[in-house]
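Quick start: read one record
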Amino acid sequence: MKSIGEYFDTLKSKIATNESFHSLMKKAWNDPDVIDFIEQNKENLTPEAIERSAANLYEFVTEKEKFQHQKGEMIPGHYPKLVLHNHFIEVTYVPTQAFLEKEQADKARRRVHTFYLPSNLIEARLDYFDQTPGRMEAFLKALDFLEDYRLNANHNARGLYFYGGFGVGKTYLMGALANELADFGTESILVHYPTFTTKMKESIGNNTTHDLIEQFQRIPVLFLDDIGAEANSSWLRDDILGVILQYRMQECLPTFFSSNQNMSLLEEHFAGTIKGDVEPVKAARIMERVRFLSEEVTMEGYNRRNPS
């Protein structure tokens, strides 16, 4: 039987006389990674096995070149690697670190469900949060929540109620929290509450009300943005929001709110309805749930949406 060295000499001879074989294999036999692989595995390879692996060797060098140029790869984000299997040479594809990090980030994004809010919230991060004096307390409270949530085996850390003027960063802070939680593997919903209430009215006609309520009841962490800006009705307050919050209160599921109104003003909002009814007892009942689920934190600063 020929040695590996003798076999390479034979192959080179074939290359010189066979143009089609030359075009297919020249790069493979001269590739340093191929040469090193065969040398490292020569005790388990025969010349015949190498020749029968020619197509795989050609695939390897071709795909390696594509990977180096980041263009036209068979499996984007993966680099080719030679392996020995049953005494034959095969090609496997290994994900790059960048691909793995992107895949992890994509999985995290899929854990954050946003409804009726700007898509760029998916990029919100606490690292990017502008820590001005009027927003510092909210930022620190957010960090405390994350630490409590991470350490608490039951994940029943109390949420926050961010209160402040327009554009001070309440929604952004909730989005940043949702993304940080996603890195822990936690799923959340971040929803613009006034738009949600409109959609809930529409859900009556297509019989999806129960499914929507259940989704918001059971999600591990819920963020209700801009509560108090909706047109209040007894049905929305008691049969939708009240049912959602009651379940979350019983199950100790973290719930966050943002509002332009403090809790006292929100209670006044809930007391009045679009029909003109005044229902302070029912308003107090819903606020009892809000207060149980969250701690009020004031945010101050200029309007970042309209800084002029």
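The first helix runs from residue 4 to 17.
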